[in-house]
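Chapter summary example.
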Amino acid sequence: MSYEDFHDVAQQLLLKFDQLYSDHPNIEDSQLSDGVLTLTKNNFQKIIISRQSPVKEIWVATVSGGFHFRWDPEKKGWFDKQHQELEQFIQQNIL
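The structure predicted for these 95 residues follows.
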C-alpha cells in the first residue's frame, strides 16, 4: 500500500469513527484533527486513535495501554497481531 493509499484509507476510518462514536452514549466529546481522533468518555478518560504514517498503522491509546493495527488488504480491515479487528476491539474493550 502506498503512503497516499494509506492516508486515504486511514482518513476514511477516522471520519467513520468520528461520526459513529460522537453520538455514542459513553462518549462526551469527539475531536478529529490532523490524523488524530480523540474521544473523551463520560468519565473523562480519553481514547486516542491516530494515523501513524511512517509504519502505516492505526494506533489506539487508552488508559489500559497502546494497541497497533495494520491494514489487511485481503480482509479489507484493520487488525492487530492477535487478528482482532479494530472496530470490534473498540466496541468490546474500550466503550
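To summarize the output: The chain has a mean pLDDT of 91.
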